[in-house]
Design goal:
32% helix, 308 residues, elongated, Rossmann fold, 2 domains, binds glyoxylic acid
């Protein structure tokens, strides 16, 4: 019985260290050192290997090392093998930090001041009170909820949009496609924390930007595939949007010369918003394995039909 890891190799060495300390009885292998594939019961991956079912006939659990699972082809995963998203608390905390940073940067016009500093221009911009800056979060899962809880502290009027209904104290919650225009119409800073599925691919497009108040701002911490890139550039040019903070792109890394690199109204980071630490990931994974052995429900289990 082995645990196989296939993701960032440097982090994999840290996983190995924590496995050796926490679960010495469970042999841990780092891709491509697979050993006997029939021995592999647990697989933790970022980009999944080909032919999972045929290669690893005795697989019991698959873990994504990230919160997202859009890199998986669900048809390749045997229905009896649970796929688990990384839902340890540290990943939410990292996302809370990043989104708070991005929302505050947009709220306080940081991109303007960066440009002004480059031009050696000393000019004030009138501060909009937080109470007049409406922040809307798309995607009200674990991460979206954690982000909204923290944003409450600043006094922004808050709204959330989700596929299925949610109730969050102090947040106007909208559910379903038909409510999207109402949600957008009162959102000055839009945060995308949706999972990437066939339903959400390309959702950040011109018609969505047109539904926002003029000059709204965007934070995309979902996936590059949520955004229609040319529409963002055009919306910035038309003044529909005034700025954007993007942590994800398509493809990653973003190719040299791509307009996002040098756009003065875009702040770009290389998909670093939130990452689990090897220690917390190993704890989550071992806890899930223990629950699985006891036949309990598994937090973070992905519904293949929903796609997240
Ligand atoms: C990162 O994007 C993740 O899915 O955790």
């Amino acid at each position: 019985m082995t645990f196989l890891y296939k993701a960032n190799a440097t982090r994999g060495l840290e996983w190995a260290h924590h496995f050796a300390a926490r679960a010495p009885e469970l042999p841990f292998r780092l891709w491509p050192d697979v050993g006997d594939p029939a021995e592999v019961r647990y697989l933790a991956v970022w980009s999944p290997p080909e032919n999972i079912a045929a290669t690893f006939p005795n697989l019991e659990l698959i873990f994504s090392v990230g919160a997202g699972v859009d890199q998986f082809d669900f048809s390749q995963i045997p229905p009896h093998v649970p796929l688990i998203r990384m839902l340890e608390p540290g990943i939410a905390e990292g996302m809370v930090e990043y989104v708070t940073m991005a929302v505050l940067a947009l709220h306080r016009d940081l991109l303007h001041f960066i440009a002004q500093q480059r031009e050696q221009t000393w000019r004030e911009i009138r501060v909009t009170p937080a109470a007049k800056r409406r922040v809307g979060v798309m995607g009200l899962g674990l991460l979206g909820q954690a982000v909204l809880e923290r944003l409450k502290l600043f006094g922004f009027p808050l709204a959330g949009w989700n596929r299925s209904p949610r109730t969050i104290e102090g947040v106007s919650c909208y559910a379903g496609r038909e409510t999207l225009p109402d949600f957008l119409a009162q959102t000055d800073i839009l945060v995308c924390l949706l999972p990437l599925t066939d339903e959400t691919r390309g959702i950040l497009n011109m018609s969505l930007f047109e539904a926002l108040p003029r000059g709204a701002q965007l934070v995309n911490v979902g996936r590059g595939g949520h955004l229609v890139e040319a529409d963002l550039i055009a919306a910035l040019e038309r003044g529909l949007l005034s700025s954007a903070v993007l942590d994800v792109a398509k493809p990653e890394p973003l190719p040299a010369g791509h307009p996002f690199w040098s756009h003065p109204r875009i702040l770009l980071t290389p998909h670093i918003a939130s990452m689990t630490t090897p220690e917390a990931a190993v704890e989550f994974v071992l806890d899930t394995i223990a629950r699985h052995r006891r036949g309990e429900a598994l937090p973070g289990r992905v519904d293949h039909d929903r796609g997240y």
